[in-house]
Design a protein that fits this description.
- This protein is of the alpha/beta class.
- It has two domains: 245 residues, Aspartate Aminotransferase, domain 2 (3-Layer(aba) Sandwich); 127 residues, Aspartate Aminotransferase, domain 1 (Alpha-Beta Complex).
- The chain contains 14 helices and 15 strands.
- Strands 2-10-9-8-5-3-4 form a seven-stranded mixed β-sheet, sandwiched between helices. It has a four-stranded antiparallel β-sheet with strand order 11-12-15-14.
- The structure holds pyridoxal-5'-phosphate (PLP).
- Pyridoxal-5'-phosphate binds next to helix 3.
């Protein structure tokens, strides 16, 4: 038996990390399809369906979508390879741990970057972006890179406000957004929001196993890249713009993942994107209602201090020093079958995180909150009463 499932526990294990998320049976089954040779017309049809479905989900019918057999870090590198140039700089806006990691990875490739500072508990500071762009009178900044939802903090930033700041400065920089944690959970409209490049991966809102990444690129970004970016090959958007399936993927396409994606995109369309977003918003609200009750005992609180920034994907709960969030996670996972996430980077040991992203519904969230309460009881964590009742009341009030 696989080490991921031993020892067997009866019933369902609740995955409440913000990625990997729960994978629906329909997607799992689709991924078990037989392999085929690459000249089989079904391969081309599958890739075509995934490209069309992604463009629809991103609301950008004319952008190119490039898929990679890679995780989110892989597609970060795809973006660096296609937007990096010796003569230019990339502006990475501070949002928390994920922008820190993105900056570290980009800089390690030898690319020049500038960063804006991040204030814990708050959204991306738009005025700092404006200052950096105004100082850049020579227009060396090729792109403004933004993480929509920083998964470590559970905070979603304001993409429209950042677009407006770039416009106010009259700066020609491309606008690049990491939607790994926010796609199919928070509103996103690539064209209407004026976004030139976005990137994501399979294991979060797309309800798939990890291992498939994508980048969507509009004509402006493609043209910029064609002129300026080098060196590159494997990740190159130029190389991938072809009808030849193996050239398109720079090798064999990840067929099982593409088959899963076709189905997951179909599930999202069948539910309706507005309904998907409303469901995420509702489940996030229920989690915060519970956390706010737990917080009345004074030992924990929501990490996000700006209600406008509450993420519909994940809630970070900040704890005081009397609580060991890692020990709590172990008890929640091993005794109550609820897998939560922990703190990353500067938040390590200071938060636990409850994911409410992907293939998730009301009883799953209520079950998870109950399991977490049980774990907190075992751990003698001091938490205020009525958390579960508050979550139930929230759902009762907000369910359509
Ligand atoms: C998860 C995540 C990543 C990294 O994705 P991996 O697949 O783990 O490499 C990047 N950005 C954000 C916002 C994420 O949530």
């Amino acid at each position: 038996m696989s080490s991921l499932i031993t020892p067997r526990i009866p019933g369902i294990r609740f995955v409440h990390s913000p990625g990997p998320t729960h994978v629906p049976d329909e997607v799992m089954h689709a991924m078990q399809r037989p392999m085929t040779d690459l000249a089989d017309p079904r391969v081309g049809a599958l890739i075509d369906a995934c490209e069309k479905g992604m463009k629809k989900l991103l609301k950008s019918p004319h952008s190119d979508v490039f898929f990679y057999a890679a995780n989110g870090h892989g597609v970060w590198e795809a973006v660096s390879a296609n937007l990096g140039s010796e003569k230019h700089t990339l502006l990475i806006t501070g949002s928390g741990h994920f922008s820190d990691q993105w900056a570290l990875q980009t800089e390690s490739l030898g690319l020049s970057i500038v960063r804006t500072p991040h204030k814990e508990g708050f959204r991306i500071d738009v005025s700092a972006i404006e200052v950096a762009l105004r100082e850049d009178t020579q227009h060396q900044i090729a792109a403004v890179m933004v993480v929509q939802t920083d998964t470590a903090s559970g905070i979603t930033s304001d993409l429209d406000a950042i677009r407006q700041a770039i416009n106010r400065c009259g700066h020609p920089a491309l606008y690049v957004v990491d939607i790994v944690a926010s796609l199919a959970a928070a509103p996103f409209d690539m064209d209407a929001m004026g976004i030139d490049v976005c990137l994501g991966s399979s294991q979060k809102g797309l309800m798939m196993p990890p291992g498939l990444g994508f980048v969507a690129v509009n004509a402006k970004a493609f043209a910029w890249s064609k002129t300026h970016a080098k060196p590159r090959f494997y990740w190159s958007w130029l190389e991938r713009k072809t009808d030849n399936q193996s050239a398109k993927f720079c090798g064999t396409p990840p067929l099982a993942h593409m088959a899963g994606l076709e189905v997951s995109l179909g599930l999202l369309q069948a539910e309706g994107l507005d309904a998907v977003l409303a469901r995420h918003s509702r489940l996030g609200g229920a989690v915060r209602a519970a956390v706010n009750c737990w917080a009345t005992a004074g030992a924990m609180r929501l990490h996000c201090l700006d209600p406008e920034g509450f993420s519909t994907s994940v809630t970070a709960v900040e704890v005081n020093q009397s609580i060991d969030p890692e020990a709590l996670r172990v008890v929640a996972r091993e005794k109550f079958q609820v897998a939560m996430a922990g703190g990353l980077g500067p938040l390590a040991g200071r938060v636990f995180r409850i994911g409410h992203l992907g293939d998730m519904n009301e009883p799953m969230i209520l079950g998870a909150l109950a399991g977490i309460e049980a774990a907190m009881t075992v751990q003698k964590v001091s938490y205020g009463p009525n958390g579960l009742a508050a979550a139930i009341a929230y759902l009762a009030k907000h369910t359509p």
